[in-house]
Amino acid sequence: MSYRNLDIYKTAFELFLKTHKATFLLPKYELFELGSQLRRSADSVVTNIVEGYGRSSYKNEYIRFLIYSHASNDETINHIEKIMALYPDKAAEFEILRNEYNTLGGKINNYKKWARENWNEKKM
């Protein structure tokens, strides 16, 4: 098995691609400010899933990186909400992303709970 098989990875990767493209809808002066922060936090969601999986032989390490991923997901939602408040004309596009990240946050949280209860280091 690979991290590529995880639903949370697949969803986070697709959302990263959508989010990256969406940031280029922002005014040019915002590309290196809020746009950059949003791209980095969206990247962190998926990257922490991958890095955690690489450490999955150690249950606590794996869970720690899932926690980081969940925190980055919350950060991403916050950046999106700031964009929606600052640029109401872009709100519809970003609201879709916010809803998808809300769903992903629930999935990461559920997977984190599953890993806490079921992860067996000896099987890895």
Automatic annotation (TrEMBL):
Pfam families: 23S_rRNA_IVP. It comes from the Bacteria. InterPro entries: 23S_rRNA-intervening_sequence (IPR012657), 23S_rRNA_IVS_sf (IPR036583). NCBIfam families: four helix bundle protein (TIGR02436). This is Four helix bundle protein.
